[in-house]
Design goal:
heterodimer, A: 631 residues, alpha/beta, two-stranded antiparallel sheet, elongated, B: 92 residues, alpha+beta, six-stranded antiparallel sheet, 2 helices
Chain lengths: 631, 92
């Protein structure tokens, strides 16, 4: 259903087919948080989107293309804002884009304003400043389905007349009413708003205007859904609430870990097979080695995390779309607050057990910038799955398989658990330090909206998965690709008569010997040193590197990697290496994502120096103390 | 005849569970005030203390048809008049 102001603008839309326009039109999509803006954006652009950051700020920029007959329309998704007074970073960006002051973006030709019609009186506050900009505007009243179901009603024609803009009822999740959007966008000439709205100075005035407007258009708020209340009686119950919370967290963790790990392994096998099958098609020699050992191994080592990442985002999507995530954040808030973080930090931290990259992307839900950065900084301390290969390898090589608590807990499991705990404690301690020093904040009070429970749709979750995996692959892929190539080149330099040198004579051995003085105090040798260097790419890379080095070295050639390590490394050094891995920041994908999310090199550099510093000191201490007892 | 007896003014946090009131004043720094106002905590709006988080805090308040959780540290600086009163917050 669409209503028009005094002049029916549709009269002009038949003329669209007259001829293609020369320039691409820019249309901005704006709406308050939780108005369904992103869902609509995904619907309209069908994932033909570009994701990036606005220049100079951390606010995410999403631009999508809308193919219409004869003309392309660029749809700019603005951050969710409550008003246009430039109060937060998001609002500044929105104002800059709408007024044409944003670098690289022309002033929009039209605006789509999306409002949640089930909370219209609150959401209309945004309508006044947006319509007052004078840009051609289409007001979309979203969640029309829930509104009608809950018995809500309003006079859309009256609202259109009051605002001086066309108004359409839509449901972004169901996809209804979107033809009105298409028709609006394809008009030959956009119409400017016909009514003059009062310019309102402060929010109470805006609210008053919105409430009066609501009354004039006979707005009837829908009844709250009874079952949201009933579900909250269970999920926020004094006893059941926390219990269900723990079960949900454990189930997500267990599934991502327990089911995701074998999936990742299977995926890795598949990729290895693919590589082996592709190899004969490449001419043997340097080119094949570069493509297969260098690029393919490097890139596939990142690809293997995709199943786990998708699983994680599937669960996050499920929990978020259903409305449970907000309840979980409410329950976790008390605990998170004791370390100075807010409840919304718990989801990213939980997901960091699988991988810090999606975890850091998930911090977007935290509005407070300082809290968000603190969470970004501590997330890589959580024991991610990339640490498991080296943990497993060293524990199996150096920790005897002895029972600690009968059959319940063995020494090896105990060691593994201690490493998880170590990472968690480092994260908590770092959060405390950050929050009481450089990231002291809470300028913004903790506010959490508890949305109504909804049934998640496959489409919305599917879009999320595609969107996220694309961002992940692109970001991590480019960096990994370049670094892998670099490492491969170093193992093949300097060339002797066009042939690669022996490993001991290669540039990488030269590098290993170069950093040996630095790692000798940790009880480590140059081969581990090379592993540490390559593990800066990604933690699990060290296992592959050590495999190659010990495999090439004549003395250890016939041994398993475990035995080779046991022979070449003393126990104190091995423990020091484990502790080093618990703390160190060895992951270029994480650094790249931190850079992207904070939009500066400052934080990834701080994070790298801080974590590596702690790792080095702790490893030094462990080696120093243990070498007196073990040998 | 109108009742002129003023309702006792209390902090949001002092409302009984399930009790409603009208927002009177937000005694927080201007930036926080602005932030709270834009999500519906406007003087004159109706508010109801609808639920407590399982661990006691934050509290969940129903304002403007939306459930919003606030920590005690914030809710103790929002003052309300006990009971409903028609005014700005009397929603259509």
């Amino acid at each position: 259903m669409t209503a028009f102001p005094t002049e029916p603008w549709t009269a002009t839309h038949e003329e669209v087919a007259e001829g293609p326009r020369r320039e691409i039109r820019t249309v901005a999509l704006i709406g308050p948080p939780n108005s369904g803006k992103s869902t609509l954006f995904n619907r309209l652009t069908r994932l033909r989107q570009k994701v990036g950051n606005y220049p100079g700020v951390t606010v995410e920029q999403r631009i999508g293309l809308l193919a219409s007959t004869g003309q392309e329309i660029r749809l700019v998704d603005l951050p969710g804002v409550y008003s246009l007074t430039p109060y937060s970073e998001d609002e500044r960006v929105a104002v800059d884009v709408l007024t044409g002051q944003m670098d690289g973006l022309p002033r929009p030709d039209a605006v789509l304003l999306i409002l949640d019609v089930t909370h219209l009186s609150r959401q209309l506050v945004l309508a006044a400043p947006v319509v007052a900009l004078g840009l051609p505007t289409l007001v979309l009243l979203n969640m029309a389905d829930a509104f009608a179901k809950g018995g809500g009603s309003l006079d859309v024609l009256k609202l259109a007349a009051e605002l001086g803009t066309p108004v359409a009822m839509v449901s972004a999740t169901q996809g209804t009413g979107l033809d009105a959007v298409e028709r609006f966008l394809r008009q030959d000439q956009y119409q400017r708003p016909g009514a003059l709205l009062p310019i309102l100075q402060d929010l109470p005035q805006c609210r008053k205007w919105a409430n009066q407007l609501g009354r004039r258009v006979d707005y009837q708020r829908p009844l709250p859904r009874a079952w949201t209340h009933r579900l909250d009686d269970i999920f926020l119950h004094k006893l059941w609430g926390p219990l269900i919370f723990v079960v949900v967290v454990a189930a997500v963790f267990q599934t991502v870990f327990g089911l995701g790990q074998p999936l990742s392994t299977a995926f890795q096998d598949l990729l290895t097979h693919l590589g082996e099958h592709a190899a004969p098609f490449v001419p043997p020699g340097l080119i094949r080695s570069m493509l297969m050992d260098g690029l393919w191994k490097g890139v596939s080592s990142v690809l293997v995390f995709l199943p786990q990442i998708l699983m994680l985002f599937f669960f996050i999507g499920l929990l978020e779309d259903s409305g449970y995530l907000a309840r979980a954040a409410l329950i976790a808030d008390r605990t998170m607050r004791s370390v100075g973080l807010n409840g919304k930090a718990f989801i990213p931290l939980l997901s960091a057990y699988a991988c810090a990259v999606p975890a850091i992307m998930a911090t977007r839900t935290i509005e407070n910038k300082r809290d968000r950065i603190a969470t970004v900084l501590i997330a890589p301390f959580m024991t991610c799955s990339a640490r498991l290969p080296i943990y497993t390898l060293l524990i199996a090589a150096f920790i005897p398989d002895r029972p600690v608590i009968g059959v319940l807990l063995g020494a090896r499991a105990c060691a593994m658990l201690s490493l998880y705990l170590l990472g968690f404690l480092a994260a908590i301690a770092t959060a405390k330090v950050l929050k009481s020093s450089i990231l002291k904040s809470a300028a913004v009070p903790f506010v959490l909206e508890l949305p109504e429970y909804r049934c998640p749709t496959w489409q919305s979750i599917g879009l999320r998965l595609v969107d996220r995996s694309r961002v992940f692959l692109r970001q991590a892929g480019t960096v990994i690709l370049i670094v892998s190539l670099l490492v491969w080149v170093l193992t093949h330099l300097p060339l002797h008569n066009g042939r690669a040198p022996e490993l001991e004579q290669s540039a990488i051995a030269y590098l290993g010997h170069g950093i040996e003085p630095l790692i000798q105090p940790l009880g480590l040798n140059w081969k581990i040193g090379v592993g540490l260097l390559t593990s800066v790419i990604a933690r699990e890379v060290i296992v592959g590197t050590l495999g190659t080095i010990y495999g090439v070295a004549p003395a250890t050639q016939s041994m398993t990697l475990q035995n080779a390590l046991r022979r070449d490394l003393n126990p104190a050094g091995a423990m020091a290496l484990l502790v080093f891995f618990a703390f160190a920041m060895q992951c270029t994908s994480t650094l790249a994502v931190v850079r992207r999310e904070t939009n500066s090199w400052k934080w990834p550099i701080v994070q790298f120096v801080y974590m590596t510093g702690i790792a080095y000191s702790a490893a030094l201490l462990v080696n120093h103390v243990l070498s007196r007892f073990l040998r | 005849m109108e009742l002129e007896v003023p309702e006792p003014r209390v902090a949001l946090i002092d409302l009984e569970l399930g009790e409603a009131g009208t927002i009177d004043q937000i005694s927080l720094p201007p930036a926080d005030q602005q932030f709270l106002m834009r999500i519906g905590f406007v003087p004159g709006a109706e508010i109801r203390f609808s639920r407590r988080a399982p661990l006691g805090d934050p509290g969940v308040y129903s304002v403007d048809g939306t459930e919003i959780a606030l920590r005690a540290e914030t809710a103790s600086y929002i003052f309300v008049q006990r009971g409903y009163r028609s005014g700005l917050g009397d929603l259509p």
